[in-house]
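# step 3/5: fold
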Amino acid sequence: MTELGNGSALRLPRARIVPLSAPPATYTAAVDRYLTGAGIAKSSARIYRILLTTWGWMLTGESAPTGPARRGAKPPVFPLAAIDDPALPEVLAELAAARADEMDPDSVNRELSIARKAIGWWQRQGWIDGDPTIGIERRPAPPDRTKALAENQIAALWRLDDGLREKTFWKMLYESAARADEVLCLNVEDLYPQDKRGRITAKGGATEWIHWQSGTAQLLPRLIARRTCGPLFLTDRKAPAGTPTLDVCPETSRARLSCRRTEEIFEENTGLLANPLASPEDIEDLDGWTLHRLRHSALTHDAEGGTSSPMLLARSRHASVRSLERYARPGVDSVARHVAERDPAARRRP
């Protein structure tokens, strides 16, 4: 705004950012450009694509499909410029609030953060002007002190009658303390079975090692069979047309297993373990465990066993010692033993 000599003000038009490159024609193309141009790690790109696809429905004013309806649903096709619709923020806030009511705060905040990162990147390219998420607030997420599973819960998990793929995946997650998306990005050629380790693309894009123990080492040969390359963990069916070549096994034509599907399988199979007093008839309405709890449990059990901070940093692949605070808190077994040992009414052994 510029003041004129007569005291009145001259309102100048807002300068528009000149696009750094030709804007993509559709929202889907914009997501592709973001994932390849913003330096998103391969291990994170799969999750980002899923979440941004989910937000694609909401950005068109529709509720995102959930449950079985989500599998195979084709995302809407719309121009990226539609994000600048002045009526969208209010509609999006209502849809996001309804979706948030069905999810835990951490997942809600993670989705919102990823959506805002993509929108901010598109703004810097000059492809869009506004941010339709401006009216959406992060949900308060009080810390959950029960994320670390007890030793008997881990033992019960290994006793479940599940397939070889699931057993190997869960064992590797717990023994390596790796993130689910990192393990799912493993290829057969990334494994060094004789050394019980594998090469992964970690959060942030760094190439690092994960290490496992005998439980995983005994299962891997059966899972790999005679395969020599391609994704380690595969779907049960052949890959649909259009699946990226890197996500298809050249020997079986099956696709790489998705993080979303592994979460669904794990939650379905751990429903009774997470709700031991529930009846089998009610289990469909109850939540099971999340895969992240295997990583959290492994690091918590390491800390309880006296593992040093440098080793915990190496195992967790966190950048800061401060990030280890969440694992340094003793788990339920340690606290239970501590209380039992100091129970004055308990029978003491001579």
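# step 4/5: annotate
The beta strands are 2-3, 9-10, 191-192, 197-201, 207-211, 234-238, 254-256.
# step 5/5: archive (pending)
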